[in-house]
Structure formats: C-alpha cells, structure tokens
Amino acid sequence: MKIVVCVKAVPDAAGRRIDPSTKRIDRSVELAISDFDTYAVEEALKLQESTGEGEVVVVSMGPERAMDPLRKALAMGADRAVLVTDSALEGADLLGTAKALAGALEKEDADLVLFGQQSADGGGACLWSAVAERLRRPVISQVSELTVENGALTGKRQTEFGYDTIRAPLPAVVAVSDAINTPRYPSLKGIMGAKKKPQEALSAGDVGGAEGAATTVLALNPPPARGEARKIEDDGSAAEQILEFLAEKRLV
Amino acid sequence: MSVRPSDYPPPWSATDAVQAPTDSADERIDVGFLIVGAGPAGLAAAIRLGQLAEEHPDVAERLGDVPVAVLEKGKAPGSHLLSGAVVNPRGLQRLFNGRKRLDEMPFYGPVEGESVLFLTKRRALRIPTPPTMVNHRNYIASLSQLGRWLAEEAEAAGATILPETSAEKLLVDAGRVVGVRTGDRGRGRAGEELGNFEPGSDIAARVTILAEGTQGHLTSAALDRFGLRSENPQVWALGVKEVWKVAKPLREVVHTMGWPLRAGRRYREFGGSFIYPMGDDMVTIGLVVGLDYRDAELSVHDLLQELKLHPRVRRILEGGERVQWGAKTIPEGGFVALPKKLHAPGLLLCGDGVGFVNVPALKGIHYAIESGRLAAEAAWGTLERGASSRDALASYDVSVRDSFIWSDLQAVRNMRQAFGRGFYLGGALAGAMTATRGRFPPGNARTERDAEQSLISTDRAASYPAPDGRLTFDKLSSVFASGNRTRDDQPNHIRVQTRVPRELAELWVRMCPAQVYEVGAADGDGTVEVKLAPSNCVQCGAITAKGGRLTPPEGGSGPEYTLT
Amino acid sequence: MAKTLVFLEHHENAIQKGSLGVLAKAAQLGGEVAGVVIGAGVRELAAGAGAFGAATVFAADDAALSAPLPQPRVDVLAKLVRDEGFDTVLFAQSVLAADIAAGLAVRLEAGLNWDLVDLSGDGVGKRPALADSVLVDVGWSSDVRLAIFRAGTFDAVETGGSAEVKDAVVELEDFSTRAEMVEQAHAEEQGPSIEDADVIVAGGRGLGEPEKFALAEELAKALGGAVAATRAVVDAGWYPYSAQVGQTGKTVSPKLYVALGISGAIQHKVGMQGANTIVAINKDPNAPIFEFSDLGVVGDLHEIVPKLVELVRARRS
Prior knowledge:
The structure holds three protein chains of three kinds. Chain A is α/β, with parallel strands linked by helices. Chain A has helices at 35-51, 67-76, 94-108, 127-135, 188-194, 238-248, and strands at residues 2-7, 9-11, 18-19, 24-25, 31-33, 55-61, 80-84, 112-116, 139-149, 152-159, 162-169, 172-176, 199-202, 215-221, 230-233. Chain A has a nine-stranded mixed β-sheet with strand order 11-10-9-12-8-1-6-7-13, sandwiched between helices. In chain A, strands 2-5 form a two-stranded antiparallel ribbon. The termini of chain A are far apart. The relative contact order of chain A is 0.18. By secondary structure, chain B is of the alpha/beta class. In chain B, 25% of the residues lie in helices and 23% in strands. Chain B contains 15 helices and 28 strands. In chain B, β26 and β27 (527-532) form a beta hairpin. In chain B, α1 packs parallel to α4. The longest helix of chain B is centred in the middle third of the chain and has 17 residues, at 365-381. Chain B is globular, with a radius of gyration of 23 Å. Chain C contains eight helices and 18 strands. Chain C has helices at 17-29, 43-48, 70-84, 95-108, 213-223, 231-235, 266-272, 301-316, and strands at residues 3-7, 10-11, 14-15, 32-39, 56-61, 88-92, 111-116, 118-119, 125-129, 134-140, 145-149, 164-167, 180-183, 199-203, 226-229, 256-260, 277-282, 295-298. The longest helix of chain C has 16 residues, at 301-316. The chains are: A alpha/beta, B alpha/beta, C alpha/beta. Chains A and C meet through α3, α4, β9, β10 and β11 of A and α3, α4, β7, β10 and β13 of C. β15 (230-233) of chain A pairs parallel with β18 (295-298) of chain C.
C-alpha cells in the first residue's frame, strides 16, 4: 500500500507574524512541519508498520528551504520526500495549492492520501476536500480512528454532533485529527539517516502549471477594540449582574 | 543563626551522570568525533574539524559515515545561546583563516563609541573607561544569531547537528570516555513512558569534546570523575537581559556600575549592566550580578526592571517595545578556577564550561571559539598514524597554555575576587592589577563557593517596581518572551531539596528569573515546602550555584532565543 | 445585484441556527437570496426557512443524500449554482460545511474565503488572523464567490415570511457516493468537547482545592458548555491535561469563556484570547485577566458561582 502524506512547512510558532508589505504570513523565519501534519505522518507510519509493507511518501508545496522540515518526516520514518517548489506558486490560494498538490499526487498514484486536520498558520482551509475533488476520490475528514482492511478504510469522524463511522474504498483521501495518535519523536538514527533518503523537487510545470489566485488579500487592520470592558466589585449582587450581562449578549 | 544554601545540598551526585555504555553494537550510534553543545566553542570545533577533513580526505575516511556530530539540547542552534555581546573578532578570524571576511559574519557592526557610567538612583556619572573594558575594534553581535550562523557553516563543513538532543550521561569504559548517552524523550511527570516514548541512545566516538557552556552538565561530572577540579571552586554571575525595538538609534556601547547594586561589603553585590545597540532599531540591555550575593530578597530580574526606570536608561528605551528576554549564568572564577587539566582519556573540555571568561573585559566568546579550534586540532591529532591518543589530547592543554586565552586570563586573574571586598576597594585593586598586567598584587586570590555565602534579609524587594507591562515586566510574561513553550508533562529536571528553611526558599524564589520556585506550606519548625514549576525553567543555571542542581530536561525544552 | 445561495445545514430535523444567521445576513445584504436544504425528507424543513429571510428555498431531497456527507452535496450545489446563475454561495462554519465549500470551490473554480466575521455589500470580507491579533480584508477575483462565516457570527432573524420551495436537481458523480455512512453519530450526553464548545468555564488556582472544580462543572452544565483548566491546576493534579487551555495546552475561541479564579498570565491568555466574550471572577483586583475581559468581577467565586448557577438554571427552564 502506498500512502502519501501532504504536509505543510509553516513558520515555527515563535516567529509567526504577517509581513505588512506582502500582507501574507512572513515566511522568512524558521520553517517547521505544521504540528497538525505530524499526526498524519504518524498515522501513515503506523499503517505501514501494521501491514508490514508499503511506502510512505511526504509531499509538500513551498519554498526551497521547506525541504529541511520535510526531513523531519523522513527522520520519523517516511521513505521519500517530494517538494513542489516554484516561485510561480508563491502565495497560491486554495485552488492553486490544490491543483499543484493534486498534480504531484497523480504522479504518485497513492492508495491513501493523508492530511493533518488544520494548517497551523492558515487555519480552517479544507485542502483535503479540494484535493479529493481534483483527484475524484472519496474524502473523509476529522478522523480520530482509522483502520484499513481489504482495500477499504473505516474512519471514525468527529463532528459537532458526535462520531460518525464512515467507510470508503481505496483509493481515498483522509484528514486525521490530533486525537488520532501521539506522533513519535524521531530517533537519532532516523535523524541521521534522513539525509540519505530520496528528496525530489518538482516545479509548477511538473504538476500542471500555476494558477492565478481567486481570492485576494486587500488590507490588514488592527482588530476592533474589545468594546467597553466592565469591571465590578461584588456587593452581593454580582451573580445577578453577570446573568444580566449574559442575557444582554444572548449567551444564556 | 544564618542559613547557607550549601547546608542543603541537592539530591544529586556527579556519578549520576557517568555510566558504562549499555547499548548493543547495532543500537549504538557510531560517529567519528562527538561534540556536545552547538555554541561558539562546539561549532568552532566542528568547523575546524571540517576544514581538516577537507585538507586530508584520506585521513578523514577513518572517521566513518558521520565524521563529526554535534549534540544540541535546545530546539535549534541558538535557542539556548545568550550573551551581551561585544565580540573580539580574533577567534573568528583565526578559525576561518581568510575563508570569511568580517563583513560576511552576522555582526550588527563595529563598536562606534562607548561610555562607562556610574549610576546613582537618579544620576549618571561618566567615568573613564577602564583599560580592560575598551572595545575598540570589537563587534556587536547577538550570540544566538552568531550560533545559528556558525551552525550553518558547520553543516556546510560536513558536521551533523542533532538538535533537541540532550547529553545525559558521560559514557566511560575502562577509565576512558567513549561517548555520551542522550536523554530519553516522551516521559511523563512521574517518569512513566508515554505513548511516544523514545529512549536515549549511546553515541560512541573516538574523542568527545564537551562544549556545554556555563554549568555544563557532563563537564561537571567529568571534572569530578577524572579529578580535574581546581582547588578554587568556580563561581558564577547571573545575567538577565532584554532585547528592545527602539525609536531612536543608540550609537554607543554603554556599561554601568553602581546603582541598583549596593556597594557595601556585606552585600557582595558585584556586577553591572550593559546596553548595546543592535543595528539602528534595536537595543539590548542586561544586568549581571555575581551569585555570591547574600540578600535573600535580591532578584536580578527585578533589579533589571528597576534599572530601566533610571532616567538615562529610560530615555534609550522610550517609545520602544520589548521583543525578547532571557537569562543565563556566566562563570566568573577566571584563571584561578580553571581545571587542573582540560583533557582526560577520550575527552576534551572547552569554552564557558571550564570558565574561559575574562570578567573585567566581559569577554568569553572569542576564547570559546579559540578553545574549540584548538580542541579540534588536538582531536585530529589522534588520527595521525603512530600518534598516541593520550599525547594528542594532552597537546590540547599545551596549546591552550600557549594561546592568548591563557595569557589574557592570567593577567586579570585576581580582579573579580578583589570585588569580593567591596566595590571601592575592589576598584582600586583592579586599577592596580591593570596597570601592572596582573603582576600586582602577586599570587592568586582564592574563590569562595557561591552557595557558602550565608544569607541576610534586607527589604530590597520593597523598591522593585510593579510591572506596568510596557517598560517593566513580571517574570511570567518574561518567560513567555524567551520563547519558552516547554512541554508540561515531563519529569522535573531540577534537583533541589524541597523542605528547607523559609529564608532559603525565599532566596530561590527571588533568584530564579523564571519563577520556577514557590514557597509552599510551612512546617511549623521554620521550614517550608518548596514547590516547582519546572516547565518555566530557561536553564540559566543559577540554582546550581546556590544550593541545587540543574540537569538537562528533555531535548527541545527551554527557551527559544533568537536575538539574545 | 448579487444572487446569493445560502447552504442551510440541518440536523435531526432542524435547520442549524448558524445557517439561519448567515441567511439573515444575506437577506440584509440585499439582492436575490435563496436557501438550499439537502437531505432525505427535507421539503417541510425547506418551507420553514422562509420565515428567516429566504424568498426561495431549494430542496434537494433524495435517499442518497440522507447521510450528512460532503461530496454529494458538492454535486447538488454545483448544479444549482450553474443552473440558476448564483454568484455567491455562503456557509456557516461546521465540519460538514467546510468540507463542502472546499470541494465546491474546486468544482466551480471559485475563490473561497473562510473564517469570516463580516461581509460587505461590495464584496469585502473581514477575517481575523494570527490568534485574532489582526483583521484582514479579503476579496474575490473569481466570478463565483464562496464564503464561510465563523460559527455564531450572525443571529437568526425571524422575519415571518414564507418561501417558495423548489426542487433542486440531484445528479451525483460516481466518486461522490463511494464514502458511505456505516453508523451516524448519536446525541452526546457528556457535553461538547473543549474545542467545539460554544461556552467554556475554566478553573484556576483561585478555586482553592481540587474539589471546588465541581463549581466549574456545575456552571458549565448549566450553560451547556465544557470545562477547562489552567496549567497550574493541571500541574497540581486537580484536572486532566486534556482540559488544559493555554500556550502548552489547547487554544479555544468559544462564544463565551468564563474564567474562575484565573490570574490571566500570558501563557493562559494566548490559549483563549480569541473568545468572543470573556467573563472573569477573581478576588484579586489587580489580576491581569481583568485587562482583557469584557466583564470582570472582583469577588469571591465561592459565593458568586453557586448563585449564578441557580439563576442560569432558572432562566433556562
């Protein structure tokens, strides 16, 4: 079974900020694999270990120096890394990213494509659904438990209403939540061996070309002030005052 | 009846950090040369080894797949590096030997001017710069950034750097250092193995170079194990510093003495502050205080906050914003506290770990780099055909003694200790020493263990400013500004007695810049419980000087400095 | 003039409040506004949406749509957008809605902006970024615009109108139906998880002792929320790490965060500063939490909270 994990290299937490000149996240700081994606890498490795065979490939899209954080996935145990890197893809939005990743994934022809549930810096974008649409494959997200057997997968999907159990035949796309496992620390041998594993760079041309963005970032503003903050001292009626406040805001 | 921290020694002994190898041959990791610490000393050694390997590829072959490995307990090289710093470029120039120009190195520029101020609470009196402190032809740098750059150079020279890897045990076999054992990862608070538990590994090397910096964990164990300790105990100072974005550029390097430290002999408050420009839009300010201080209420962090209220200092920071904070100890024993030998079978010792710091000049980085370079050459010597490893390693001691490290430190050897006799007398003696290049007063003054100073209590804390969140800050938000986001659920790495006299507990609470310690329930007999929040720890090492012991926590923990 | 389609998510035979809120916003922005309800046996539900601002509601009613899976819904929405010429499709954030919107964006080659807290008539969305420390103006350059609004941003407004219900064509791609629901979620009894909760009641050292967490639990239950804890109390063993909110714990952004006996150190703040409304009770008037709470109460939580619990219960019944 070939499992491809899509990971994103994001600015390491300490350095995250928006560059006022480009209005996008400042990517000149240290990059690291998004924490959320390490759960996906771990799940891929666990599946590989349980079946005793297969290949785990990590695929990412980013600047050249994103190859460094990809090595962490190799150090954890992935077999190969592929980085789609091209200046034409800088600042790509959901559509552009989905197209480029899908292009790389088509070359890999994986049985299972895994994503982490959320991008640590972009937040909220369902890249997995967009990629699954391009690949014309079934997709299940928010998976907190995954089993693969006889060419099909069963996933426990967490929604606001509880857990659904969903089944889909392979090939499929799955986004795993951070409840699914505890990612392993790379062993020292793993770290030292990572450099020797195959690392491939693909250009925009290799994956079907770049696309103009369909969304734009127009301006950065300071957030609206929190609004008038009230501070009271309890004179015996604090509970009532709190209730009134909550009622005003329709929170109760 | 006075309390001394040394009366309550920590539950720890050097033998806890030394053991025989336990991994089997295929579990163990074999490298050529192993360096512990990706700081200036360790990376200089790695770079020099890389140069030698390039010059002698046939000899280098004997080092195997991983000729040089550097272990770093921080998240990345630079994460645990903190200094002022004004760097004497001599070490870097000798290391790169023409391969790199000064303008290619990550400096903020040469020192353009300097002043030394004697402060009182409201005034600043400019005093002539003491000759030992002249910084002409030196360069301003962030040690964290310099470390990051040196790490890239080391990797380009062929070294393998392993971040997030702590060196927990020194591996000794038949009286010889054969490598280190790295720390486990993935243990819970009670030491239990968590889901992603990863045990440490034995790393075996033909020579191990310890470049751990101040309070080096394995360095200390090695000094005991091989009987290398000087008669004079090492002493330390604690430095707490901040990096600020500022509205107006600072055009000179500033050092201050006097307030807020007290001159009286009974206080033993030796130290001063530094304020350095970092380019046009940043400034770094720090306060360094000897840990032989006696007042249980003394808090270097809070004294730094107080210092910022001085009109002369406030002016520099006006309109600015704090962007980083950090703390670290500096070895201050100097020449008289250097180990008897800097090597042992299979082992070489460098840098701050053995105390190569020129206290009056506030310099240590170029000595660290030079010692790393010399260690690399000595280690390389073990590869020469017919060489005896013992002679090759012993040659390190010889070359250090022949170097500027030795002559510089010898010239200033009694200066720090003179200040143990109070600021004014100390100052006079220091002047005499400088004038005579160390020949007067003759002999070597002794050092006294920091932990043996008996405690006093004044009401020093009454004048610490309440943090306003703009100019002055509390400890917790400062820990945040160090980039520290250490995993909470891991074993406590600080060895300290947890039932001690109240005064000692209060000493620790104030001493620790990261608010690790807290006074718990009183016992009725004058003792209290000491509670710890180890994940706040920025691994400054102050506790080791004052009655406890810092051991390395899980790799990757601690601060994530980038500008310190 | 915009022609807007609002995805009306439903669960257990009721349209989700969030979707109705987005519908109200669309109605307020003007132009033609239609809703769409997708599932099995949903025609009645579709009719009811008229009271909340839709002139037309499409019902895509088919047994194949009964499970709340995203891909068949992409098929329905794409066809509807193309057939009816909608230029704007709006969603209220949910796990399902986010999956649908992303797939639909690719299908229609339409720009998608998510996590919006507002949208103007001239097509500018407002989106918080970097833990709500910055508000970004975002736009679209595609013909069709897709947007997902942050949960609970808009309130449903009952206008009392009625809608014309039209049938939406249901034509499903082969790959859309490969995922099948084996067992659908049951109603959860233990309350929402911290990450999903609209209301969180968090306890800190000010609670005094581990047993006092019962106060936080009762208040959370009364408000229908989840219980969280600070690092200090988790360290002390009063509550499990899974409930820890903060820099080294979870980051949450509920509609309401009630902080009991919490000082508000920055390590905690960064985990919850995105909450819409913050109420703090602490007996220390100088606690930093008062600097960023909407309602700060200086007082004894041991007296205030039990009373508050009674009042909330009374009000809700």
